[in-house]
Each structure stands twice: as C-alpha cells, then as structure tokens.
Specification:
It is a single chain. By secondary structure, the protein is α+β, with helices and mostly antiparallel strands. It has a six-stranded antiparallel beta sheet. Strand 5 and strand 6 form a beta hairpin. The chain starts with 12 loop residues before the first strand and ends with a helix.
C-alpha cells in the first residue's frame, strides 16, 4: 500500500492477517484495502465460519458504497474508486481502483462477500 492512511477516513492502516492473507485494515473505521487478487484468496481459504445469526445480520446490512458522504480514492494512484456489484446479483457493492490496484471494503463488506460466496458454493456443489 503506497499510503498508510485510510482512503475513507484518513485513519491509520495496519497490515493484518485475515484468512491467511495480509490485508490493510483501518484501525479507526474498520474498512479494509485489498490489493489485486487478495479477495479471491480470502474467499478460497474459508478459515472463517459464520453462524446463521451472523449471516443474516451481515446480509441485512448490505448497502451501496456510493451512499457515503465523500468519494474514496485509491491509496496507490489517487484515482477515485468506482462502485461495482461483487458477483452477479450478490447485492454486495464494493469500490475498486479503475487502474486495478485493488479495492476498498467498508466495515462488514468482506464478511458479506464471504457469506454470499459460501452460500453460492454450497448451493452449486456437486456430489
């Protein structure tokens, strides 16, 4: 990460391990910066498990990132991040760098991605 400041709130970012992947976590707002391809590794690792109550709460909290007060910019290049829906019809909206440096996940969005992908995988697992 080029900047050690949070792209959403200017708080301090710490590198932490999550699902076996080193990610940049904001100590103030709880958002996460993921470099390119880290989200795939996190979804594939599946070390974290979620109770049914956690799944319901996480998915109920989905909202568009574009609803925030100010735009978020890439900590590597400074360009404004673009909002997109992660996986078709997931209802989880994330922000990514138009230059493919990575993506920003607001608090709770990483868990939402994991829950949606695990649910999708379970539905389509062939025995």
């Amino acid at each position: 990460m080029a900047s050690n400041k949070c792209p959403a709130c200017d708080g301090a970012m710490n590198e932490v391990a999550y699902e076996g992947v080193m990610v940049d976590l904001c100590v103030d707002c709880g958002g996460v910066w993921l470099d390119q391809k880290e989200i795939g590794a996190i979804v594939d690792n599946r070390e974290e498990t979620f109770s049914e109550e956690e799944q319901i709460a996480a998915l109920a909290g989905r909202q568009k990132s574009g609803d925030r007060e100010h735009p978020v910019h890439c900590p590597k290049c400074g360009d404004q991040l673009k909002t997109f829906q992660y996986a078709v019809n997931s209802g989880v909206f994330l922000d990514r760098c138009p230059n493919r440096h990575g993506m920003w996940l607001d608090p709770g969005e990483l868990e939402q991605v994991q829950i949606v992908m695990e649910e999708h995988s379970e539905r389509f697992d062939v025995v």
